[in-house]
Design a protein that fits this description.
Helix content is about 30%, strand content about 30%. It is an alpha+beta fold. A hairpin with a 2-residue loop joins β4 (about 80-85) and β5.
């Protein structure tokens, strides 16, 4: 008597993918998070570099500005700052900027600048509180006609004649938030990694739980 061939149980569970795929999905998500955090650090360093390059002027007073580009610039009121090794803190005396006369001229000291005045306009509220822990606010903005030497003259009408600091330079966030090396790029990488890791997790979970079976032939 010969042994009968045992039937194959087609319903036997198939071996699903390894749990290591879950780790890969989680790892991709961590890569995205790390890229986003790194992009914030890059943006912060770029903003700090712009702050360091700003020209400070003690008011009342005047200063020559060497602007390196044409275009939009801001004049900030800096409530806490340092000029020539001297620390100035005007938070108690001037919570808001006092009434001031500010003039900006194309050309250096001693040049005929009466006909080269640069128009200053009040800055929009969206540019305020951009740096220095919220202790600075944009007060004026202007469009410089080109790189070169400018002269800023400023005085305020406070009877005590207390000094305060103005900082002049390009908007600190210009090009930083939208750069691929900044938060925009970091957020894009994070979104990509999140989508891929979510798809990978769902596929592996479906195969391991049998939610997706072998296609019938």
């Amino acid at each position: 008597m010969t042994d009968a061939t045992l039937p194959v149980d087609d319903a036997a569970p198939r071996k699903g993918p390894s749990r290591g795929w879950y780790g890969l999905a989680f790892g991709l998500l961590l890569v995205g998070l790390a890229a986003f955090v790194a992009s914030l650090g890059v943006a912060r360093a770029q903003v700090q570099a712009k702050l360091d390059q700003m020209v400070r002027v003690v008011v009342p007073g005047e200063v020559e500005l060497e602007l390196t580009r044409a275009g939009r610039h801001l004049i900030y009121y800096e409530r806490v700052g340092e000029v020539a090794g001297e620390q100035l803190d005007t938070r108690a005396r001037f919570v808001a900027l006092p009434k001031m006369n500010v003039g900006l001229f194309k050309g250096g000291t001693g040049e005929a600048v009466d006909e080269m005045r640069v128009t200053l306009i009040r800055s929009s509220s969206t540019e305020s509180q951009m740096f220095n822990g919220g202790m600075a606010s944009s007060e004026w903005e202007f469009e410089s006609p080109g790189a070169g030497t400018y002269r800023l003259v400023a005085a305020h009408h406070n009877v005590l004649e207390d000094r305060l600091i103005l900082a002049v330079g390009p908007p600190v966030a210009d090009g930083v938030l939208s750069a691929w090396s900044g938060p925009f790029g970091g957020a894009s990488v994070l979104a990509f990694c999140f989508v891929i890791s979510t798809i990978l997790f769902l596929v592996v979970w479906s195969l391991r739980t049998g939610s997706v079976g072998k296609r019938c032939e």
